[in-house]
Amino acid sequence: MKTLEDLFLDSLADMYYAENQLVKALPKMAKAATHEPLREAFETHLAETEGHVQKVEGLFKSFGKNPKTKKCPAILGIIDEADEIAADNKKSPTINAALIFAAQKAEHYEIASYGGLRDWARLLGHEDVADILDEILDEEKAADSKLTELAEEACNEAAKSQSEEAAGTVGKNRGRAAEDALQ
Ligand SMILES: [Fe+2]
Ligand SMILES: [Fe+2]
Asked: Which residue among 51, 78, 87, 139 is least enclosed by CB atoms within 10 Å?
């Protein structure tokens, strides 16, 4: 029989694995980014992610346990997809939009997981653990918001306009205006 505490600790082990994988993946994302503020955002979140590994280790100790790792196929799939989309869009004006698109999937996975873990910790009477999980959750949400901001303020538009330029078009509307002028 599994108790809620077992379920909590198993799920925490999944996140311990996921955070360690993200520590390996984020430097590659930073390296692939060509938009400087995006590269910096990945570097900043790498430092936070290293902190998450430490914090999760501490949470096991709060339950009197040694840190346990459990292979997380979900994060491996998300990271595989990020590698693939980065390779497919390398040297293209779409690279930064593609990296953000992939990275936000990892952040949303973390937000969903830590939200559930925080609620269970509170229910189990571990307010101290719930508070730490809230701190991690706040950093994941801030990282996600930063990515949305970079996509909306720069990277999506750049992906569109630079790929149109590279394709030798000047955008639908201006293209249409040029056609009209010829008629
Ligand atoms: Fe994290
Ligand atoms: Fe994260």
From this structure: 87
